[in-house]
Here is the input.
Amino acid sequence: MKLNTKNFGEIEIDESKLVVFDETIPGFPNSKRYAFLFDEDENSPFCWMQSVDEGDVSFALLNPVEVLPKYNPKVTATELAILGDVDMSAISVYNILVVPQKIEDITVNLKAPIVINLNNKKAVQIILSDERYKVRHNLQQEIQNQREGE
Amino acid sequence: MLALTRKKGDSIMISDNIEIVVLEVQGDQVKLGINAPRSVAVHRKEIYDLIQQENKSAQNVSKGTLDLLGTMLKNNKALENN
Here is the structure.
């Protein structure tokens, strides 16, 4: 299907690859289905999650695996229940980025990650009870901190 | 808004599967217990509001910004490897 987007203009979306939020992302009750758009550079830790239901809704995401190797949120079975049967090896986690005026001030939301069950493409934004993580972590600072401890 | 008066130990039912129990009342603090299906998300309102606000702020990121950030991160790595 074709989709008009704010950030990417008109793009072609593969409907079989969409993720579905049965419980929508806080603030976006009208967007249930999203497409993932990846960078041409396979090594980029960034990608986009573009709403298919609202063309002007999209989130810039960070895949924390490489750049924040110590990010290890405690998640309970209850928090993941909405994803159906969960195989922990078939789960993807992403964090939402916010860029204020200056790019150096970019923050990453480690408190409320996007979690995807790769087996059934169900997704949810979990609000962690894990107190180590906040809504706004300075990304560069966080990358630095995690490296220093190595 | 529907307002109900309840005592300690009393509860209310929302639909047929969500029960909210008043566990404890102390001064201006109330401790609530919630029995709900596991798929129902329960959050403190203030943290839910915070996440909602942050998600809205996230809409301002443009493709150009993220591309730039990718380059910055790459250069950063390159520097460290040298």
